Amino acid sequence: MVFGFWSAPSWQRLAHDKAQSTLSKIQPEWRLPKAALDEAKRRPDITGEFIQNLLTENDVAITEMEASELISKMAQKELSAESVATAFCKRAAFAHQLNNCLHEIFFDQAIERARKLDHHLEKTGAPVGPLHGLPISLKDQFHVKGVETTMGYVGWIGTFEGKKDTKKEMNTNSAIVDDLISLGAVLYCKLGETHNNIVGHTMNPNVQQLSCGGSSGGEGALQALRGSVLGLGTDIGKFAPNNQMMHYVLTIVPGGSVRIPSSFCGTMAIKPSASRFSYKDVANSMPGQLGVPSAIGFMSTSFSSLRLIMKSIIATEPWLRDPSLCPLPWRNEQELTLSSAPELCFGLVNCDGMVSPHPPVARAISILKTALERAGHTTIPWSPEPNHETGTTIHGNFIESDGGADIFNQLKLSGEPLIPEKAKDMGNRPRKPMSLLEYQELGIQLKSYRESYQAYWNSTAAITKTGKKPPSSDLRTGPSFTLSPGRPVDAIIMPVSPHAAVIPGKYYHYAYTEIVNLLDYTSVTIPVTRASKTIDLVDEKYEPLNETDCLNWKACKSPTYDPDSYDGAPVGLQIVGQRFQEEYILSIAEILEAALQVSGDDKN
After folding, report:
1. Which positions ≥6 away from 143 have C-beta within 8 Å?
2. CA distance 69 to 75
3. What's the mean pLDDT when you consider all of the chain?
4. pLDDT tens digit string along 176-203?
5. Annotation marks residue 139 as catalytic
6. Which of 18, 139, 238, 271 is flagged as catalytic?
7. Could you tell me which of 347, 332, 334, 310 has the C-alpha nearest to residue 588?
8. Prediction pTM value
9. Active site residue: 137, 216, 228, 257, which one?
10. What family does the database annotate (predicted)?
11. Is 257 a catalytic residue?
């Protein structure tokens, strides 16, 4: 296309040039040959052995260590920060060429930072901080000096969040980015929302015809390919006009924005309560919607890495720099261990009453239930009143309160359209926003719902038959246990989604994760199994609960659930605790992980 002297580049040209600019930042020696790229397209699964065979043994050894081991070896000078950064940058470069998962590449900046860390260690004999030399990847909402942030919007290219001449363009760090740098981390890439007009689609490396989830799906895909062991994402909710659940070109996406990609890609994630970690200077959609705010989330290949990064950040006392945060230090006393844990009782959600999970998810619930019972723990059915359908409606109303105005304002900057399959649902303009009085009424509904849900949780003490946990409003005090009966459930176990990783455009029901956002609860995802075409067979007599449930069961290539389409897809579940229970729920997830390993029964 040839542009006239006065014509501005089309959004297509801007998007194409941006994507090519990102690709051009991969060093020539890290460019994969056409034969490898062609072979990747033919394979359903490009994780594990396939990508390992493209790397050196040393690259594989470094990138498949967990965070704590990497940090230890760098502190002891068994590995240099430069060698670690180079290995992860190289593997991330390969991952992007195979999977299209990166939005921003700043490998040169990362390797130079690693060299400086090595020099500091050599000169002083001490690491910079507890994350010294650790490569950490970021979702493309976090600002990093010297790096652009587009969040998938073409109109944000060359700007600061769509605004020009602010002097902040590529000259701003998010507060949590400053924290990571002060702790010694090496930042090297930013990951994409998984369907937008800049990068197109990012698919699931485990089963390439399926989605990697969103909106922090680029991080999930990169971790599945071991191009990252630890990354930051965000977690909020859906935008669904006309009651049609949707996957968007931007950050307003289904509730569960770190949990869904973690579950789909076979990794771990934690969604903390929103006021635990700083959102200061982090780009966002609908930044003024604070009724059900977005939360910073963390994704990793191990639970120990999740603990490491959260504990390290909290040690910097971020509430002193961000007044929106709860001044809550890390509470070691909340953490349980296999030896110290009492008998635990879990509320078990097999179905939320709206959409029944597909067979692989139902089997995952059964596997985890069996494993925890073998470990001496118990479950009770979780049937809250008010129900999850009521909560999902409240949540959706918050996320839709501006009628889509923020979305369309960002699209207008470049003239880019919504992704094609969604344009027909949204039209070409925002709807009427909610009035202030309506928004205030919604806030009253939220308050009432949270209070009623808490009352239901407390009422389970009458049926759990576990030791009592005395009620306390002191967030600094961890759970304590006695032998008297009557402790409410310790956590809830429920699906992350009603299916394993799904065919793009076929995700219809986000309520399993949305309810956690609405309540501002803590949630950790745990990998349980993989879908199997020989085990996870459909019940031909199943009668859908409603129209959405029917759509969910047709969300495949065949008229009903098709085991072949999901074969090999990871299946995770979420362990849900109350507000600000990050330490406690993370330790419970580790206990359940150990129970699964001991049980060794992940196929039945």
Report:
1. 149, 172, 173, 174, 177, 281, 282, 283
2. 10
3. 90
4. 999 999 999 999 999 987 888 998 889 9
5. yes
6. 139
7. 334
8. 0.93
9. 257
10. Belongs to the amidase family.
11. yes
